From TrEMBL:
Residues 5-79 form the RNA 2-O ribose methyltransferase substrate binding domain. It comes from Capnocytophaga gingivalis. Keywords: Methyltransferase, Transferase. Gene3D superfamilies: 3.30.1330.30, 3.40.1280.10. This is 23S rRNA (Guanosine(2251)-2'-O)-methyltransferase RlmB.
Length: 246
């Protein structure tokens, strides 16, 4: 399973206008012209994730005549946030969502998706900008679970958290900066868990709007766990509490 790759100004413009699910667009730095302006307008209107890169990057991505533009089509479809929340609430299960705050390692995200599917997560929310592209490695690491769990890409994580809170879903963050241990929280109510980036953790703006923060007890010398391992610990504590009625 690979991303479908398209390149060239006309093909990429046509793909966007046709409503294809685009995971990432790479544009050569310094590109200009009428078609580039048209492409840039579409990217802005639809808030598509894009990066401006040196021509060498594009040449590594494709051997074709890229004309300064390469786009990766996602192997999965994304669900709108409102649709995800509504279907989750209407399912009759206690909502459990995951928010991945700018994770960049495809294997970490793939491993998280696999664990999320095993623990009954209702859906996974990612930012459109700053997340790893969904491709072959992520699909493999997820062991195919990526096709069994709804994924949602959003423009702004803070606005998304406010929306979830307004929908009756408590949002907690997994962070070593917390004063409470995970096991001290009630995780049986409607819940969204935020996992932070591998190197920087949860972003400052997101930290400010959380309902609660929680951490895992660390017994060794290393101060933090791999994010996919930490996520697994959080999700299985949710499962434990919900099975036992806390």
């Amino acid at each position: 399973m690979k991303n479908t790759q398209i390149f060239g100004l006309h093909p990429v413009i046509e793909a966007i206008e046709a409503g294809k699910t685009i995971d990432k667009i790479f544009i050569q730095k310094g590109l200009s012209g009428t078609l580039f302006t048209e492409l840039n307008t579409l990217i802005s209107q639809q808030k598509l994730p894009c990066s401006y890169v040196p021509v060498e990057k594009l040449q590594r991505l494709t051997r074709g005549n890229h004309q300064g533009v390469v786009a990766l089509l996602s192997p999965v479809e994304f669900v709108p946030l409102e649709e995800l929340v509504l279907s989750t609430i209407e399912s009759g299960k206690v909502p459990l969502l995951l928010i991945l705050d700018h994770l960049s390692d495809v294997r970490n995200i793939g491993a998280i998706i696999r664990t999320a599917e095993c623990t009954g997560v209702s859906g996974i929310i990612l930012p459109k900008q700053g997340s790893a592209s969904i491709g072959e490695d992520m699909v493999k690491t997820s062991a195919g679970a990526i096709f069994n769990i709804p994924l949602c890409k959003v423009d702004n994580l803070i606005d998304t958290i406010y929306y979830l809170q307004g929908s009756g879903i408590k949002v907690i963050g997994a962070t070593e900066k917390a004063s409470s241990l995970l096991y001290q929280l009630n995780l049986t109510e409607p819940l969204a868990i935020v996992m932070g980036a591998e190197d920087t953790g949860i972003s400052k703006g997101v930290l400010k709007v959380l309902d609660e923060r929680a951490k895992l007890p660390i017994q060794g010398e290393i101060s933090s766990l791999n994010v996919s391992v930490a996520c697994g610990a959080f999700l299985y504590e949710v499962v434990r509490q919900r099975l036992n009625g806390q």
